Amino acid sequence: MSVTEIDQEVAAGGRLRLSGRSAARCLGRLVTGVRSLLTVPVLAGSASVALLGVALLLAPWEWRDRVLFGAVLAFVSVPVIARITSAFYGLLLVVGDSKRQLAERVEDLSRTRSGAVDAHDSDLRRIERDLHDGTQAQLVSLAMRLGLAERVLEKDPKAAQALLGKAREGAEEAMTELRAVLRTMYPPILADRGLDGALSAVAARSAVPVRLDVRLPDRPPLPAPAETAVYFVVIEALTNVTKHSAAKSATVTVRCEGERLRAEVRDEGRGGVDESKGSGIRGMRQRVEAVDGTLCVNSPSGGPTCVAVDIPCGS
Ligand SMILES: Nc1ncnc2c1ncn2[C@@H]1O[C@H](COP(=O)(O)OP(=O)(O)OP(=O)(O)O)[C@@H](O)[C@H]1O
Ligand SMILES: [Mg+2]
């Protein structure tokens, strides 16, 4: 019995009686149809459904069988194709998204890299200036005193002795200057005393009293670039407090929260930071961005001023 005969019997309101052979044939067709309907679209999506449709048209079946299979095909394939399509577009979106993220990251890195290069350049210029204006000037005056002492040595030994004394003092001053410049290039105090100890020394040197609150884990040690960035930011921020804020005191807070190193320098002074007036804050920002961190300055006119740094310090 064909599907058409079954339909006719049902339409005539008769009782449906299937012989064993025709029932098996129908079941076989159904199973084959359902299997191809389910597997083919999953494998190849709409293209395979189209192919199946063409095959249906060419198959030596009666038109009612074709309509029935076509309907089942549509019924089963539409959600499958929808799924395949949405998965496909989902995949495209994921790929597009990660491409966009990658592009943003590259842009970020290029920016922070050029920031780091700028920071490095301005560091070099500062060191050159420090050596030029400080140490070199002292060595020039030292050489002049020694030359003068040499000339008057025979005629006026007493004057020569005084000049030599001055030259020795000048040499000591030059050494102190040189040490100060070296300290700004690489802070050995960080290696000797850690960030906590180094900041204690900075706070002790500050002209404005500083309340220091540092809570850091003993282990694992913090990455040196992150520590160095925080160290120099605190120095510059405290120098700014002394130079510009008119505050009576300042607070420095340093914490390690999760995989972030956070530091804050706060004063209750006059506020109104204007980054365009100098290079200190710009330099701090470049230094922090070079280690993938962020620097935020909050300083409404009238105060308070808060310089906050957030740097990743995970492995
Ligand atoms: N804590 C502060 N309180 C009030 N004003 C501040 C404070 N810190 C900075 N400023 C203002 O912001 C300006 C910019 O600071 P920045 O550190 O960039 O430059 P600077 O200190 O003037 O010069 P330098 O380049 O030597 O650091 C300062 O000139 C000052 O007017
Ligand atoms: Mg400054």
Q: Tags for this entry?
A:
315 residues; alpha+beta; Single alpha-helices involved in coiled-coils or other helix-helix interfaces; Heat Shock Protein 90; 3 domains; 5-stranded mixed β-sheet; 7 helices; 69% helix; 11% strand; elongated; binds adenosine-5'-triphosphate; binds magnesium ion
Number of helices: 7
CATH class of the largest domain: Alpha Beta
Order of helices and strands: HHHHHEHEEHEE
Morphology: elongated
Radius of gyration: 41 Å
Oligomerization status of the protein chains:
single chain
Mean pLDDT: 80
Spatial strand sequence of the major β-sheet? 1-2-3-5-4
Total discrete domains:
3
Profile the largest sheet: 5 strands, mixed
Termini separation comes to: 74 Å
Structural class: alpha+beta
Ligands present: adenosine-5'-triphosphate, magnesium ion
Q: Give me the count of strands.
A: 5
CATH fold descriptor of the largest domain: Heat Shock Protein 90
Helix share of residues?
55-70%
The CATH homologous superfamily of the largest domain: Histidine kinase-like ATPase, C-terminal domain
Question: Low-confidence segments, ≥5 residues, pLDDT <50?
Answer: 9-18
What CATH architecture label of the largest domain applies? 2-Layer Sandwich
Estimated share of beta-strand residues: 5-15%
Task: Kindly describe this structure.
The chain is of the alpha+beta class. It folds into 3 domains: 3-87, no CATH class; 115-185, Single alpha-helices involved in coiled-coils or other helix-helix interfaces, CATH 1.20.5; 188-312, 2-Layer Sandwich (Heat Shock Protein 90), CATH 3.30.565. It is 69% helix and 11% strand. It has helices at 3-11, 20-58, 63-152, 157-185, 188-205, 224-245, 280-289, and strands at 210-215, 250-257, 260-267, 294-298, 305-312. The protein has a 5-stranded mixed β-sheet. The protein is elongated and about 135 Å long. Residues 9-18 have low confidence and may be disordered. Bound molecules: adenosine-5'-triphosphate and magnesium ion.
